[in-house]
Amino acid sequence: MTTVSALRALRGLLPALRPEWRGMLWSYLVGTVSALALAALTVLTAWAVGRAVVEGEPPGAVWWAAVIGLVVLRTVLTWQEMDVSHALAYRVLARLRMALFDAYARSVPGRRREHSGRAATVAMGDIEKLEFFYAHTVAQIGASVTVFLAALATATVLLPQAGAVMLVGSAAVAASAFAWARTARRLGEEEQRERSALSARMVDALGALREVLAYGLAPRIVAETDAATAAAAATTRRRELVAQLVTALRELIVTAVVIGVIAVSASAAGVLSGSGAGAALSPALLPALVALAVAGVAATTEAATTLSQLHPLVAGADRVAAGINRPPVVSEPAAARRLPVGPLGLRFRDVGFAYDGREPVLASWFAEIAPGEHVGLAGPSGAGKSTAVALAARLWDPASGAVELVGGDGDAVALSELDDTDLRGAVALVDQDATLFHGTVRENLLRGTGTRPDADLAAVLERVGADGWIGLDDGLGESGVRLSGGQRARLCLARALVRSPRVLLVDEVTASLDPATERAISDVIAGFDGTVLIASHRAETLARCDRVIRIEGPGERGGQAPVTTRMDTAGTSPPSR
Ligand SMILES: Nc1ncnc2c1ncn2[C@@H]1O[C@H](COP(=O)(O)OP(=O)(O)OP(=O)(O)O)[C@@H](O)[C@H]1O
């Protein structure tokens, strides 16, 4: 992979970081001025030495003032540089994390619960490496390039031939850095493979120690391990040797540049030709010119080495860019409509839906839940109950038809026409998995609701029967792992109720609960003063509803595209809540 393609991959993330352009520019400016100050100090010192030796003149007050000024500037900027780049790193990290989270939240994998903890860990690791790149490395490369150009321009003004020597030297240094990078990568990978194989062999042998001893394999394993160690050490030596050769080559090039600058200066002054004509450069300036050339070549070395080491970042940048650019499955309306006031009903109007590339789950499906009605959703496994609930929570949009919220006066608004905040304020979902967040009970209850007095939160805990075993300040551990399924379900229900929704969607939350907990949870749902749609297999849960809508299972559809007509919604149970 070339450096160009590496840069292209890294450039792909810039749109997500556009709001940070001022910080990046500032970080570049601070780094560049600091690097230029250092180069200027070196050149000024060399100039003063040249002048003192050749012309016998010590540096004057202006020189001292300039040097002291540069030292102070450099000190301040070094301290600033740390501050600026750390603050930028923090913001870059946050931006990339948020962009990735946002993309996942709006795209298919998040809604399918497809992203595993492992994928999330890889993505977060990638983002941390990229954070360093954007916050530190970009500015460093920019500063090196600027120092090189400034040194080249100054050297060319002083003596064009010296500028040419510096240009050739820099090109040679950059070429050697790129050539070495490929070899280094290959040897590094080889070394890594050999060391991993060695570790795996040791772990295997230790894991099977009884067999190793019983079969008398110990001497063989020691011999094999010795051979593998020697092979890994030989690769390490080869890599170190190449590194030393490259360093030696770089020093040789720098020496050649120094000699070249002296030679062209002497030639310009006519020393080499013996003509003594055209003293183009005062000998007092020679040390300054040499210092300039060395500073320029050093800056090239730094930039080329960093650029040639970008490859490990590229795969990460590609992964993060692919994550950030996932297409959303729901989009915000251009002009959002307002929600009807008062109690809300729910209508699935001729809804068609299929998970991508699969058989339709719902086709022209109609169901209506009146404001304040409690309706159960029944049907065999795979019929589409969870899908219907997910559509009502707008985790997906239907492919055809619409899911609507209907006001008491019949005024209907499709979920896709609503502002997301309005929708989330009106409709709450208690999901099958009953997932809680890391943090305290209070933090979980307040997710997405702003602030509420503790007394209100405590009242909701009491309502779901959780007040006896948990308090608002208690921590839940990661995803509420310290709780039983029933306890998690109660807290998830409490979290939904705290939002005071007008429509409560419940997906199979009682599925794996004991009868007593199921009853307790069903009691709370039955007492909810609003519209309820609850998907469940449990007869007792469904019996508490005003009405039950049944969705046919795939086996009941006779291989046809599943169509549920208005008639299907008529199957009811007597209200018993
Ligand atoms: N994220 C998804 N991606 C692809 N197919 C899915 C997805 N979720 C569900 N399905 C498929 O859609 C169909 C309906 O699934 P759904 O979960 O809605 O049924 P259900 O009635 O709730 O089933 P259960 O009672 O077992 O929870 C099934 O065939 C299922 O395999």
From TrEMBL:
One Pfam family linked to the record: ABC_tran
Primary location recorded for the protein, binned into one broad class: membrane
Coiled-coil features, chain-numbered ranges: none
InterPro entries found in the cross-reference section: AAA+_ATPase, ABC1_TM_dom, ABC1_TM_sf, ABC_transporter-like_ATP-bd, ABC_transporter-like_CS, P-loop_NTPase, Type_1_exporter
Domain ABC transporter: 346-577
Topology relative to the membrane: Multi-pass membrane protein
Annotated localization: Cell membrane
Keyword Transmembrane helix: yes
Top-rank lineage group of the source organism: Bacteria
TM ranges: 25-49, 61-79, 132-152, 158-181, 252-272, 278-299
Region called Disordered, residue ranges: 553-577
PROSITE patterns registered for this protein in UniProt: ABC_TM1F, ABC_TRANSPORTER_1, ABC_TRANSPORTER_2
Domain ABC transmembrane type-1: 29-282
Transmembrane helix recorded as keyword: yes
UniProt biased composition (Polar residues): 562-577
Keyword terms, alphabetized: ATP-binding, Membrane, Nucleotide-binding, Transmembrane, Transmembrane helix
Protein name per UniProt: ABC transporter ATP-binding protein
GO molecular function, one term: ATP binding
